[in-house]
Amino acid sequence: MTSLSPPLGRHYAVQGHRLFLHKSGTGGPAVVFLPGAGAVGLDYLNLHQRVAGFTTSVLYDRAGTGWSDPVTLPRTAGEVATELRELLKAAGVPAPYVLVPHSLGGAYARRFLQLFPEEVSGVVYLDAFYEEWDTHLTGAKTRLLPQPVPGDLMLRLVAFLSRGLYKKMFATWPREIGQALIARHATVGWQRAGALERGNLPELRDELKAAGEVPDKPLIALAALGIDTGAKFLMSRRALREMTEGKSRLYQALGASVKDGETRVLPGARHSTIGVDAPDAVLQAIDDLWRRVS
């Protein structure tokens, strides 16, 4: 799963593993991107390069994903949050941070907030995990359920079919980086890692709720209401409508959960590709929150 030579960035030793991290820019608070399941740090390079124009920007791969060393997946949110804190210290990126989690990364950002509240200035959620999901998405097809990991044959099929998506996603990335991402994403190993990471969503929800309140920090929640291509094939129109309406309620609730919170709806952006579907809107949210907490 791991390559000794990522196309950008370097490895740092944390908890006996080599973890990939790439940082650019100067100043603070540093902006730290937390990838979604199946994604890696360099998937957000287009946003990272622009953020680095006004502060330090950090991309990384969790252990078990991308160019970081393999570990047994899935893991608890506490394990991932603690690992990230140690990695940022090893890389010389001082707190406080503006966290920018996408999808599953939201669970890890929420746990980071619970464990290390003094080290977080604010959060920009990119259609991210929020533990109140089942409160607002109550349909049988939209509730949080355990996600079984597909077999190798299905993973090979998904990897093959996904190449076109990744070619479009990384069309504007530097050639060497884009080609490396396409090649690695279209492997069974990377596809399996993503499936394993998203396999314990109900447990992550329960972990966050059992840990108590998430500290009140400024946030902007971005809701991507476009429909992923895969969802169109797997869900009925009714289920898709319920999901869209439920997500609108969910992220409105997230925005209202803190004193300095805000929700911004992106009708044309899709969950998996929010960073390439609406990069200007995402960058604007990061810039707005960063300036607010700076």
From TrEMBL:
Name the domain of life. Answer: Bacteria
Q: For the AB hydrolase-1 domain, which residue ranges apply? A: 31-284
Recorded GO cellular component terms are: membrane
Quote one Gene Ontology molecular function term. Answer: catalytic activity
Q: Short name of one Pfam family for this protein?
A: Abhydrolase_6
Q: Please state what the protein is called.
A: Pimeloyl-ACP methyl ester carboxylesterase
Q: Which organism is it from?
A: Nonomuraea endophytica
